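ESCALATION

Customer reports they have been waiting on this structure for their group meeting. Please prioritize. Original submission:
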Amino acid sequence: MIVARTRAELARGLDSLQVRTSGRRLGFVPTMGYLHEGHLTLVDLACERADVVATSIFVNPLQFGPGEDLAAYPRDPHRDLALLEVRGTDLAFLPGVEEVYPGGPPRVTVDPGALGDRLCGAFRPGHFRGVLSVVAKLFGLVRPDLAVFGRKDFQQLTLIERMSRELELGVEIVPGPTVREPDGLAMSSRNSYLRPAERAAAPALARALGDAAARFERGERSAPALLAGVSEAVRAAALLELQYAEVVDPVSLDPVDPVEPGSVLALAAFCGRTRLIDNVTLGGA
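Update from on-call: job pushed to the front of the queue and completed.
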């Protein structure tokens, strides 16, 4: 596996893999590191869909707001590199902030528009501007044919799909599955923040979503009724505080009522001081 830490090393690595000259299909998995099976499943998917796979590890300061966990965000690059090599990554790109943002924070960024102000964006102003800006920059540096992003970060996936399509970036966006722990908790690097009692409480979020999905399958089509059940289940769980829960159209992110098959029930909640997100597609995968 080639490890690149600078733009020049990245360019040389891509040249050595002959992705520009041989017609080989390049897959890309951008991450912030501290990898878990959810990330590695995205790498597996990229390996299935592409001839060459590149992965980036970069904790992007542009998507962290004041008081968020940029300094504390978990990092273990040596472990990450070992995991990536085992899963078949051909090139790992681990740039520093100065490599990604030479000269300081960018003056030109990608505006997500109104879609970036909904759901998580309503509580994290500027977050999705930072996400889209770094993804666009990484696409420009790596020039992949396809990129894989997980469904757990549903709003992020939706916005990146739209950015690639509407800005004609030429990158196919491939959704990857939400990977869960045996008790249902969606895998996340931030799960490492959870204390034992919080970790025991956190799966209540997945159970609340599962209950809502089951009620939908039994015929419930009222968004307020489904959301009331989620809110009640989260309130009943110790150490959890619901930040939001909404049922939305998966493309427009507009709230829906009555609920149609394919709608997404998305939520965010605090478990202790740790913010967790999760979602379920109602009547679908």
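Sent to customer with the following note: The two ends are 34 Å apart (CA to CA).
Escalation resolved.
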